[in-house]
Design goal:
The structure holds two protein chains of two kinds.
Chain A (H helix, E strand, L loop, with lengths): L3 H23 L3 H4 E2 L13 H11 L5 E7 L8 H20 L4 E6 L4 H12 L1 H4 L1 H15 L5 H16 L5 H4 L10 H8 L12 E2 L2 E8 L10 H17 L4 E6 H34 L10 H18 L3 E2 H7 L2 H13 L10 H24 L7 H26 L10 H4 L7 H20 L5 E2 L11 H13 L7 E7 L2 H18 L5 E3 L7 H13 L3 H11 L8 H12 L6 H10 L9 E4 L2 E8 L13 E3 L2 H60 L3 E2 L1 H26 L6 H17 L5 H27 L11
Parallel strand pairs in A: 1-7, 8-14
Antiparallel strand pairs in A: 2-5, 2-6, 3-5, 4-5, 9-12, 9-13, 10-12, 11-12
Chain B lengths: L1 H18 L5 E3 L8 H9 L4 E10 L7 E10 L3 E8 L3 E6 L2 E5 L5 E5 L6 H11 L2 H4 L3 E8 L2 E8 L2 H7 L1 E7 L2 E10 L2 E12 L5 H7 L2
Antiparallel strand pairs in B: 1-8, 2-3, 2-12, 3-4, 4-5, 5-6, 6-7, 8-9, 9-10, 10-11, 11-12
The chains are: A alpha+beta, B alpha+beta.
């Protein structure tokens, strides 16, 4: 019978701890605190500027876009044109219904020329501000380069008239003829020719084949719940309205919200399934291995206490925690139960031996294994990757809580000893030569794998492995995007600056780089519709120097066969601009152009507080990345993030190595050089064997295999410690080692079944290492020929 | 006095009626007024053709038209290609996918079918193919014969398009197209004179790559 004071003290501490933990979790808005956003895996202060930029851009407006393609069934005998008109009408009705929903900020059928007309109108009416400064500077460079003796004004007039005459023989002249009397400088036709490539991303045609296209933007982030469910409802309702008018209407659509929702629901499903399966397997292992199965229930509080402590510590340390931490953290069930096994299965030396006496024999290996593991995982706190830092805290806190929960729980129960079944304790006879030979053979084979296999390993990090693959959604996405004109052989660049001036200057340096790098590839950007700030500052002076331009241009036009009187609208506007005193600031100029952008065009230029960006489309397949000094990245975020993860793997490898060194050093300090080396050789050997086996199997490993290996080494060195402690006392290794290893391997084996590739990677790595460590622990004594230790049977 | 005025008015009406151009017959899917039918069949069956052409563009702000010269290629499968050689080399291709403008350096600019940018030139393809079923929904078509000469006039049914494009006229002699005209107004028009036409041409792979999409 345990002392009452001990029991009630333990109960009180457990009760207070559990109540405080549950109260803390209950006070949190877990929906907001737990993130499924893949961008939360990247540090907010990522040091690489281009990656930081990708993170910012991806999190902003662009992510809210929905692309929708509407198709109506053909009627018998109906020609293509009539069907297309019906399709356009249905798309307009669908778009109207979608736009009226509060979760949708904007919905525009692409057949609606409104956004393009609004931009064209804004550019045309402001052409002297937007386009003339750069036009003048370009001509002035030509004038200086020509070495002409004629005055600047006369030279410019002659060049303008000659250019206009040449333009009239081009195909686009007939379409632009109504503009020419107001724009003989050809500012607007020149811009139209340069930004022609912008018609590619679904901005020009409202239709693709027999499909009408609708562009929409959700009001809320697609990564938040309000940007998912309500948006899907809005799309369903709009489709119902469209079908009421046009039965059989088909809709294909895509948006980040669909991927995010699928990912969220599958991860939540995995979280529940894996945790339950893991817990179930641990209980099953206990049920199979112990005599009075129902008493295995005493292991559950240890596991629950561990998970509670891990959740509390992690949510207390971070405002937002990625859900993967909890998915991967479900492995704690398999690890935490270890301490329960060690304490619960530790036999009494004599009948009536008190819990404190029994536990005191285990306290050294328990603390040694727990603290060395915690020290190892604590090094992950120095990782750059938030996920790894969070995982480090989750596991460390979970292990400490598991140890505390185990010590306290068994202190307050009357019978804290659970007897294992005989087969768990059964061992082959060590003296028999056959057994020794087989044990040696297996160890040698394992050593060969451990030495040769790792050289065949291949490493590759792919951020897509963090998500559950959704091939159907991806195929649908590619199909819809191709309808919107997104094609291969084209690269989209994003140039970003803190201010409009900086962004435009960076765009200029990017365009210079691009022209040098890809001389045959054309670029299209709305940045062409804006001068640089320097050009804008010099503009008043330029105009003052051309006060008499009308007098120069009229005779030049007449010489080239034009009627100068037809250009009266232009001369009126030119003279007004020459006399103008109150020009807007550069920021106002950029904001004016930005405010004219509607619908899909709004993504060509963003001018907001703290950030301005320009989109540039280049007619070439993706190649060399622009230099960081241009403030430009391609929109292939995937590649950038993959590079990022590769870099983090190297960082994690470094930290793991340091952590393992400390684990090893701790063991050496606690157990001395000789015993310490023998203890540490077991997890290291198991780890090398696992990597060797993966290498020989041709597996490609990633960051999460590395993390799994670190965890596996920390776990398996527990078995080495307990085995060495028993050996030191002249006892057989306790049965808890076997049960613990099997339970851990089972719970990690469950993770290996996950459809999230990185979770599966982590699970399979730990399971193999743990089983290998158990095998070494079991086989090493059998293989030690002629030196059987004097064992006391338990 | 009143009688005299009525007589003068009647005389004026008669004179204006006498001087008004003959609008020709309305071409309809039913095919009434039939003279155009065998002609359309013969023109549509011509297959690939190649012809020199000269073009005059009239602008309201210019006293003289802008003159261009080039070579016209028509492939029933690939579309219509206008290769300009003077004053500036360029190629314009009208095909079912839209319009392609190719400059001297070989750089292309594409305008999808149905886009406003493709404009009047995109209409040339079905017209040069004499694909009347495709043209009926978009154009009112009239046909006129004067001696050995004939003329088709295509007026867009959509008033907005009619205002921006004007009418298109295709005129010829015998089985040959000789003249094309895009006319918004007297000083906003394009006239194309088609020279000697070679029919049954076989375009080489190089021609197809250079002058078609």
């Amino acid at each position: 019978m345990e002392p009452l004071r001990q029991k009630w003290t333990a109960r009180l501490i457990l009760l207070v701890g559990a109540t405080a933990g549950l109260a803390w979790l209950g006070s949190l808005d877990l929906e907001r605190r737990i993130s499924t956003d893949v961008l939360d895996l990247i540090p907010a202060d990522e040091r690489s500027p281009e990656l930081s930029m990708v993170r910012n851009l991806a999190g902003q407006e662009e992510a809210r876009v929905l692309l929708l393609a509407i198709r109506v069934p053909a009627r018998p005998g109906e020609d293509r044109e009539s069907r297309a008109l019906r399709c356009d009408r249905t798309a307009a009705a669908f778009s109207g219904a979608l736009a009226s929903n509060p979760s949708i900020a904007q919905a525009v059928p692409l057949s609606d020329t409104g956004p393009r007309d609004a931009l064209a109108k804004a550019v045309f009416s402001g052409r002297l501000e937007f386009l003339l400064p750069a036009w003048l500077e370009e001509r002035q460079l030509g004038y200086r380069g020509s070495g002409a003796a004629t005055p600047w004004c006369a030279w410019l007039a002659e060049r303008t008239a000659a250019d206009l005459e040449a333009f009239l023989s081009r195909p686009e002249a007939m379409a632009a003829q109504d503009l020419v009397p107001s724009d003989p400088l050809l500012l607007v036709p020149g811009l139209a020719s340069r930004v022609g490539g912008l018609s590619g991303p679904g901005l020009a045609p409202g239709r693709s084949g027999d499909t009408a296209l609708v562009w929409a933007r959700s009001r809320y982030s697609p990564l938040a719940p309000e940007g998912q469910g309500p948006v899907f409802d809005a799309v369903d309702r709009a489709l119902a309205r469209a079908r009421a008018a046009e039965p059989g209407t088909e809709l294909r659509w895509t948006g980040i919200a669909r991927f995010a929702a699928a990912s969220r629901s599958r991860i939540e499903h995995e979280l529940a399934t894996l945790n339950l399966l893991s817990l179930g397997l641990v209980i099953l292992v206990a049920a199979v291995c112990v005599r009075r199965v129902y008493r295995a229930i005493h292991l559950v509080p240890v596991v629950l206490g561990s998970l509670l402590g891990a959740w509390v510590a992690t949510t207390a340390a971070w405002q937002r925690v990625h859900i993967l931490v909890f998915v991967v953290g479900s492995l704690l069930a398999g690890v935490a139960v270890d301490y329960g096994f060690y304490l619960y299965l530790q036999p009494r030396r004599r009948p009536g031996e008190l819990y404190l006496e029994r536990a005191s024999r285990l306290i050294r290996p328990l603390f040694a294994s727990a603290l060395t593991t915690v020290i190892g995982f604590s090094f992950l706190l120095w990782s750059e990757l938030p996920l790894i830092r969070q995982l480090g805290v989750f596991v460390s806190a979970g292990l400490i809580c598991a140890l505390a929960a185990a010590l306290l729980w068994f202190a307050q129960v009357d019978d804290s000893y659970l007897e294992t079944r005989a087969f768990v304790r059964r061992r082959p006879s060590e003296g028999r030569p056959g057994v020794r030979r087989v044990a040696r053979l297996i160890l040698v084979a394992g050593a060969v794998v451990a030495v040769l296999g790792p050289w065949r390993l291949r490493w590759k990090d792919d951020i897509r492995e963090l998500e559950i693959p959704t091939p159907q959604l991806k195929a649908n996405d590619a199909e819809v995007r191709s309808l919107f004109g997104e094609a291969e052989g084209r690269t989209v660049y994003l140039t970003r600056g803190a201010t409009p001036s900086e962004a435009r200057a960076l765009l200029q340096s990017f365009l210079t780089w691009h022209e040098r790098e890809y001389p045959a590839s054309r670029t299209a950007t709305l940045g062409y519709a804006l001068p640089t700030e320097e050009q804008w500052m010099r503009f008043p002076e330029q105009m003052a120097s051309l006060a008499g331009f009308e007098g120069c241009l009229r005779p030049a036009l007449a010489r080239h066969g034009f009627d100068p009187g037809a250009f009266a609208p232009f001369f009126g506007e030119w003279n007004n601009e020459v006399r103008r005193k109150d020009r807007p600031s550069y920021d106002q100029l950029v904001a004016r152009l930005g405010s004219s952008l509607q619908g899909p065009l709004s993504f060509l230029l963003h001018a907001g507080p703290g950030a301005t960006w320009f989109v540039t489309i280049a007619e070439q397949a993706q190649g060399a990345d622009p230099p960081a000094a241009t403030g430009t990245v391609t929109d292939s975020q995937l590649e950038n993030l993959n590079q990022l993860f590769s870099r983090y793997r190297v960082s994690a490898l470094r930290l793991s190595s340091v952590g393992l060194s400390f684990v090893g050093a701790s063991v050496l300090v606690l157990y001395g050089l000789r015993r310490g080396v023998r203890i540490f050789a077991i997890p290291v050997g198991a780890c090398l064997f696992a990597f060797g086996a993966f290498g020989l199997a041709g597996a490609t490993l990633n960051l999460f295999h590395l993390l799994g290996a670190f965890l596996g080494v920390c776990l398996s060195h527990n078995y080495a410690i307990f085995s060495a402690e028993s050996q030191g006392r002249g006892e057989e290794p306790p049965p808890s080692i076997r049960m613990s290893a099997v339970a851990t391997a089972s719970s990690f084996g469950v993770l290996a079944l996950s459809r999230i590739p990185v979770v599966a990677a982590l699970g399979s790595t730990v399971a193999v290492i743990v089983l290998a460590a158990l095998a070494i622990t079991e086989l090493a004594p059998l293989a030690s020929a002629g030196r059987p230790p004097a064992l006391r049977r338990m | 006095m009143r009688t005299a005025l009525i007589a003068m008015f009647a005389a004026a009406l008669a004179r204006s009626a006498w001087g008004a151009p003959d609008p020709g017959v309305l071409v309809t899917p039913g095919g009434e007024g039939g003279q155009w039918k065998p002609l359309v069949s013969a023109l549509a069956a011509k297959g690939p053709i190649l012809a020199a052409f000269s073009e005059r563009r009239f602008f309201p702000f210019r006293s003289e038209p802008t003159r261009l010269e080039g070579i016209l290629r028509m492939s029933p499968e690939r579309g219509l290609s206008l290769q300009y050689v003077k004053p500036e080399a360029s190629v314009m291709i009208a095909d079912p996918a839209g319009l392609v403008l190719r400059d001297r350096g070989g750089r292309s600019r594409e305008m999808p079918a149905g886009s406003g940018e493709a404009g009047a030139v995109a209409s040339l393809l079905p017209i040069m193919r004499f694909d009347l079923p495709a043209l009926y929904p978009k154009f009112v078509i009239r046909f006129l014969v004067t001696g050995g000469d004939w003329r088709f006039e295509f007026t867009p049914r959509d008033p907005g398009i009619a205002k921006s494009l004007g009418s298109i006229t295709v005129a010829g002699t015998g089985n040959a197209v000789r003249h094309l005209e895009f006319r918004r107004s007297a000083n906003r028009r394009i006239e194309i004179d088609v020279g000697e036409t070679t029919t049954g041409v076989t375009f080489t792979p190089a021609d197809l790559a250079t002058f078609f999409r």
